[in-house]
Design goal:
Protein name: Enoyl-CoA hydratase-related protein
CATH architecture of the largest domain: Alpha-Beta Complex
Largest sheet: 6 strands, mixed
Low-confidence stretches: none
Structural class: alpha/beta
Family: Belongs to the enoyl-CoA hydratase/isomerase family.
InterPro entries: ClpP/crotonase-like_dom_sf, ECH/Chromodomain_protein, Enoyl-CoA_hydra/iso, Enoyl-CoA_hydra_C
Order of helices and strands: HEEHEHEEHEEHHEHEHHHH
CATH class of the largest domain: Alpha Beta
Number of strands: 9
Oligomer: single chain
Number of helices: 11
Organism: Saccharopolyspora gregorii
């Protein structure tokens, strides 16, 4: 399959929809798919017309992890220096619409999205320990922050499979819905962010949250104070207040380079 076909791209107004498109393999991950995904995220970050990104899978799965059929008897690690955690450095919000099975690197990609919608019957597994691998791609940093150290160890050590409903109870995902409703709900949420929220505010808040995971309260407070001064110098604050008083949808400027 040509690389451009492995991930479908659709612009829905200010929302960019990316669809992993290897449905016959449950959208299993390939090196070319990885490169394409990173390129598309970086392009979205630089494109002022894109204000939010939704990621989903074609067919009945989200991403079943690395395509083992593409590996030889002596597999080698992927040497692309861009990590899955690139998504937290993208300034636009990224929403994962987990429509079905998700495993391994597919799970990492979903967890590094900013907000996650999942099907009730989607199957989740870390998979790594059952393939002779380790906690890859930064998941050892992120997973304990989402579910706690004990639950993270359980999921990583056992690589057990859990349904979307349990994933929601644990904190792996933020919304759980019938499979038929997942993509529509994620797109609706992204549309609200794209049309009613300041792109500059979204970028600042996203950076604050992720940098705050490893900083103390005083560092976060001082950073917020500095950002607040900058925010009041932007037109977004004036437009936010004006649109509130005029009872209309705000018209925020696009995010700069």
């Amino acid at each position: 399959m040509p690389e451009d076909d492995e991930i479908l791209v659709e612009h829905r107004d200010a929302v960019l929809l990316l669809t992993f498109n290897r449905p016959d393999r449950l959208n299993a991950w390939t090196p070319s798919m990885r490169r394409r995904y990173f390129d598309l995220l970086e392009e979205a970050d630089a494109d002022p017309s894109v204000r939010a990104v939704v990621v989903t899978g074609a067919g009945r799965g989200f991403c079943a992890g690395t395509d083992l059929s593409a590996l030889g008897d002596t597999p080698e690690p992927d040497v692309d220096e861009r990590a899955i955690s690139l998504s937290i450095r993208i300034r636009k919000p990224i929403i994962a619409a987990i429509n079905g099975p998700v495993a391994g690197i597919g799970l990492v990609a979903a967890l590094f999205a900013d907000v996650r919608f999942a099907a009730e019957d989607a199957k989740f597994t870390t998979a790594f320990s059952r393939r002779g691998l380790v906690a890859e791609h930064g998941i050892s940093w992120l997973l304990p922050k989402l579910v706690g150290a004990g639950a993270a160890l359980d999921l990583m050590l056992s690589a057990r499979t859990l349904p979307g409903t349990e994933a929601h109870r644990m904190g792996l995902v933020d919304r759980v819905l019938p499979a038929s409703e997942v993509l529509a709900a994620a797109l609706e949420y992204a549309h609200v962010l794209a049309t009613e929220c300041s792109p500059a505010s979204l970028a600042d808040i996203k950076e604050q949250i992720y940098s705050g995971l490893d900083s103390g309260l005083e560092t976060a407070r001082a950073d917020a104070s500095n950002r607040m001064v900058t925010a009041f110098g932007r037109p977004d604050v004036r437009e936010g207040v004006r649109s509130f008083h005029e009872r209309r949808r705000p018209d925020f400027p696009p995010l700069g380079g």
